[in-house]
Design a protein that fits this description.
100 residues, mainly alpha, Helicase, Ruva Protein, domain 3, two-stranded antiparallel ribbon, flat, RNA binding, ribosomal protein, Ribosomal_uS13-like_H2TH
Length: 100
């Protein structure tokens, strides 16, 4: 028997109201919402601890838990992160670099 989501809901095995799938999407990556922003940003390829701290300092944002961000703060954070070469652009750049 193949178990589907509809079957689990109809048999009251799971309740969809208990599920929470909200994540913040920054730089094309879904960052965890249960961690502090400094650590969540490090899930983006090309952002480490020092760059995450610099981003927070540049936009004068407190290092709160990601899920507590307002929509305006999230937009500000996305704009700041977009100034850096990250994810796919970084991989493309590094692959074009000649080896020494």
């Amino acid at each position: 028997m193949r178990v589907t989501l509809d079957y689990l809901v109809s048999e009251n095995i799971i309740d969809l109201r208990d599920l929470s799938i909200e994540c913040a999407r920054v730089g094309g990556v879904e960052i965890p919402n249960n961690k502090r922003i400094e650590f969540s940003l490090q899930y983006i390829h090309g952002i480490g601890r020092s760059r995450a701290r610099k981003i927070l300092c540049d936009i004068s944002m407190d290092n709160n838990v990601t899920k507590d961000l307002s929509e305006e703060e999230l937009i500000t954070l996305r704009d700041e992160v977009s100034k850096y070469v990250i994810e796919g652009d970084l991989v493309s750049f590094l692959s074009l670099r000649p080896f020494n």
